[in-house]
Design brief:
Blueprint lengths: L3 H58 L8 H25 L3 H29 L3 H63 L30 H8 L35 H11 L5 H15 L1 E9 L5 E8 L3 H7 L2 E2 L5 H8 L3 E3 L8 E7 L8 E9 L7 H14 L17
Helix pairs in contact: 1-2, 1-4, 2-3, 3-4, 6-7, 6-10
Length: about 425
Amino acid sequence: MNRLWVRLGFVIIMLAVVFTSGYRLLHSEQQRNIEYDAARTYAALTWTLTVALVDLRSAQQAYVAGGQDPHEWFAQAASQLGRLKDGLANLRAISKSSEAVEAVAAADALVERLGRVGESARNHTTIGQVLMASDLVFTDGKEFTRQAAEQLERARAAEAEARLRRHGEIRTDDVMTAAVAAIFIIGVTFVLLPRGGTPSAAVEHPADPSEPLVPADVTLVSAEWEVNRAGGVDARPVPAVAALGGDGEPPSNVGVSNPASDVPDLTATAQLCTDLGRVSGSDDLDDLLGRAGDLLNASGLIVWVRDSSGRALRPATCHGYTPQILVRLGRLACDGESATATAYRTARLQVVSAGERGRGAVAVPLVSSSADTGRCVGVLSAEMRHGWEANDGVQATATILAAQLATVVTADPAHVEFEARA
């Protein structure tokens, strides 16, 4: 995923998803506001019609009240009846629920019957049959008014429930939209992340960018050099962990890669650390170093310890190299410019990139908490295959193993000289 146009395409798609999701969420918010306002309007209209029902019943009761002009109340009843019919027509038009539409239709029919009751009461009042008019108004009129008010309340409740369901559907859509957008953005971000680790800051480059990295002080030597030398081939050692500057030739192996999926097995790492804590002899340590080399995909490992002078490091044990190579390496000055010496002085992991044709390496300090040995007792150097030195997981695993080795390996006692084993 290092091609610029591919990364740019993913970024454009991600921005399109963000803008589309934002638009959908904004539209949903507007829909929720519309639904909320509509629910309030519907409730207010049903309340207004209920009040109009009460006013119509009061006007009809005034037909038979003593000392009242019935003709004035005839006009008011007719006006209230017209308002009720218009309001019910509007209420039915804005109803979204089928149950609410049914309830409004029932209320309309009851208002129609209430209007006929009022017309009959008016006729009886006009011809002087007040008792008959009172019976109609206070029995049938009262019952029809009560039933119409109940139907209006039923319509209001059904419409409120329908609006509430609509609110829930809109909110669910919003959650789904936000979740899909978040998952897509996280996925694209993960795809766009750089793969593999970055070399340590301790690896320096020449002032001239066109000048190749040239090793000077070799601390690890490929075992293949001894084979070439024994066969009479004039070959230089293949350096891995080294400082820059001086004379030398670049490494000769080709095809370095660093796939992001190549990481050490954590279970195997935990078991190896457990076995390191139980080590009882040099033979056990050699076997565990072999397992460490397989775990780190290293062609060779060397454990350096501080010698008795306190100013140099000597190879104590190794994996992947012959004893003759250890003798040839000799001792390494602690104040040198190599990555191993730098790791010892700074007590920090050092990384040397493989370059185009060579193997890379890491140098990890063996830090001890013992008061008599000091802060750093030695260095674990590993020559890596296939560019694994740049992998963050490999560097972390090497650091863990070095921390465990620091509890096993000790520096030489002061003022006592020890020769490296042949």
